[in-house]
Specification:
The protein is an alpha/beta fold. It is 42% helix and 15% strand. It has a single domain (11-137, 179-229), classed as Decaprenyl diphosphate synthase-like (Undecaprenyl pyrophosphate synthetase), CATH 3.40.1180.10. The protein is built from seven helices and six strands; from the N terminus they run E-H-H-E-H-E-H-E-H-H-E-E-H. The protein is globular.
Length: 241
Amino acid sequence: MASSKKENPRHIAVIMDGNGRWATSKGLSRSEGHRAGADAIDRLMDSSLALGLEYISLYAFSTENWKRPVTEIRSIFNLLVEFIDSRLDKIQSRGIRILHSGSRKKLSSLVLSKIDRAADLTRKNKKLTVNFCLNYGSQEEILTAFSKLMEERKRKSVSPQKAVSGKELEKYLYTYPLPSVDLLIRTAGERRLSNFLLWQSAYAELFFTDTLWPDFGDKDLKEALSWFGRRTRKFGGLENG
């Protein structure tokens, strides 16, 4: 059934693209671009709280990003550790809950300990959930979820002839039990999903902007929300039901 009610999306996903291009345009290193991108995350959290948004998923590091130079990868994870250490108290005081979606494989013990501490400390917070998709790839997520589901069915002696439902599979996704993505934003002019939340974004509205991620701010978020508010979401049905 179509939904004509104009309201904020419950779950926003963001592909934070353009850190490197932003740095290059200013004669800076790519690591400085990632640092500026972290500041943009700060602004996004502040704006999201002010607007009463519920869930934000951020594409922080994909499974494909391991192909990047080792120096850049090290810089990204060092920045992540710094981000958590320097901002966790503020995040906690503002009622923000931190989650991690992605594979724990290949992540260092230091990175995992920081993520786990942030998630544990903020687990009861309810004002805003910020889900960091780190070492995340949607195709891998779906395959892993299906494998876990099959293992669980085997343990419970469920007939292999019984069809798998979408709701059954979703319970094994990294993002469970977050709601489906309503609005997906990608910055820096690219127009592809890049293996990000493919299952969760099945009916998401896709908003593309040329703004580089380090320049993304309150005005850009409000523009995306305004655009979302003008969309008619039919979910495969007709506008009038």
